[in-house]
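Aim 2 progress update. The chain analyzed this quarter is reproduced below.
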Amino acid sequence: MRVLFAGTPAVAVPSLDALVKAGFDIVAVLTRPDAPVGRKRVLTPSPVAHRAAELGIDVIHAAKVDADVTAKIAAVSPDVAAIVAYGGLIPPAALEVPRHGWINLHFSLLPAWRGAAPVQRAVIAGDDVTGAVTFQLERGLDTGPVFGTLTESVGTEDTAGQLLERLSHSGAVLLAQTLSAIDAGQAAPQPQQGDVSLAPKLTFDDGRLDWNQPALAIGRRARGVTPEPGAWTTLDGQRVKLEPVRLRPDVADLAPGRAVFRDKGVLVGTGSHAVELTRIQPSGKKMMAAADWARGMASLESVVFE
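Predicted structure tokens:
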């Protein structure tokens, strides 16, 4: 079966590899254009483009699928298109090109967390279980019928990045199985059932920690925005980046945002009990262990995060 693969970030690479290993004919890869990376803003191919080059697969670079890109897709005559975190909408004209349509690997248990940031929103919401599905892409936002499903437990210390890494590998297997079933004429997609929830793309502001919230909510948010866009707070008007925090239910005598150095760690008050900082990056400095940062401070007596 001739397959067009659409994807951009590193989490899509395992799926491309899985389809190649399964013997599918990958006729082209659709990915977003080279983007500036690092402090020097060097234009760099997407992880999927890089892997496609290693595999000798032709690449179509496109920020959006317009008429010209649709024509390029049609020119390679795919039987089906597999899409994993491409990062752009597929218009109706392009949806109609492959005879089997577009099969999307989505990292949630649809109809829960339809949208661009399903894993991050699941962690922030405190879901105990999430997963991945393959479904038929259609005009609605992640509304198409489902071919296959897998589940994944959300650990109490899982970051969105760690959870997404696991799902990227298990989901790759599911995607290959789904395309094999379609090729064999044995696929039977089922309509989505259950409560709908939305997972819009995270913004920079989603990473800000509100110390008036309960510690559990703060911990979930910090894990849900790691690695991107990252957790942060402010100190004396300057932004401070934070890595995920640990819950300290044994400490309940600190006001929200108040920081102290205690038990060889940096504790911060919340709307319930305290949390312990793990790593911190003050403005203009490198990320460091929170305890090292505290030892470098003259005093924490006046430190209140906002």
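Residues 160-183 form the longest helix (24 residues). Helices lie at 13-21, 47-55, 67-75, 92-95, 118-125, 160-183, 215-224, 290-296. These observations will guide the mutagenesis experiments scheduled for the next reporting period.
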